[in-house]
Design brief:
The protein is α/β, with parallel strands linked by helices. It has one domain: Nucleotidyltransferase, domain 5, CATH 3.30.420.10. 31% of the residues lie in helices and 23% in strands. α1 packs across α2. The two termini are 19 Å apart. GO terms for molecular function: aminoacyl-tRNA ligase activity; nucleic acid binding. It comes from Dorcoceras hygrometricum. Keywords: Aminoacyl-tRNA synthetase, Ligase. This is Aspartyl-tRNA synthetase.
Length: 177
């Protein structure tokens, strides 16, 4: 159904320059059956088209779904900082870059330690994300799992859901003449 040779990214201007880059992040929980490590996936778009993406096994075993999502969000925020600097070098200033995450508990955890008893095991080095959010460099917001294109980076999806995720990041099928 999807052949890599007849697919491509469609770049188009929107006239809206306040949000040059937008990020989407997701994780699965303990998806690797051998190591029980989770997978991080993120996609960054510029005017709706994918410009950066990654899917990787997390370096540690997460003890909860919240921790797996928080680790993924931390990786996405690191990429967001890099993307923001890259765009600034190109002369495209963006005050705050938004990263969308489909885990409400991870989004809350990025802003403050609200789940202390259930999240005190999370490595302190991951909490740098709070500082980045506090100074307004990046914001992390909730998105419905149904509309999160990073979902395709972390798990096997039905063909129609995978196609929908491709549509979300402007991957188009080449039209044959």
């Amino acid at each position: 159904m999807f052949k890599e040779l007849d697919m491509g990214l469609k770049f188009q201007g929107t006239g809206k320059h306040q949000e040059w880059i937008t990020g989407y992040v997701d994780s699965d929980y303990a998806g690797n059956v051998d190591t029980r490590k989770s997978t991080t996936g993120y996609v960054f778009t510029s005017n709706g088209t994918a410009v950066s993406w990654k899917a990787m096994l997390q370096p540690v075993v997460a003890l909860s779904t919240t921790e797996a999502e928080y680790i993924a969000a931390t990786e996405a925020v690191k990429e967001a900082i890099w993307m923001k600097g890259f765009m600034r070098d190109l002369g495209c200033e963006q005050k705050t870059l938004t990263v969308f995450c489909d885990s409400q508990s991870a989004v809350h955890l990025t802003k403050h330690q609200v789940f202390h008893e259930r999240s005190k095991h999370i490595d302190v080095r991951l909490h740098f994300i709070r500082e980045v959010i506090e100074i307004g460099e990046v914001s992390v917001k909730k998105i419905s799992t149904q509309h999160n294109p990073a979902d395709m980076c972390t798990k096997v999806l039905p063909v129609d859901k995978f196609g929908y995720c491709l549509d979300l990041i402007n991957v188009v099928k080449e039209r044959k003449p």
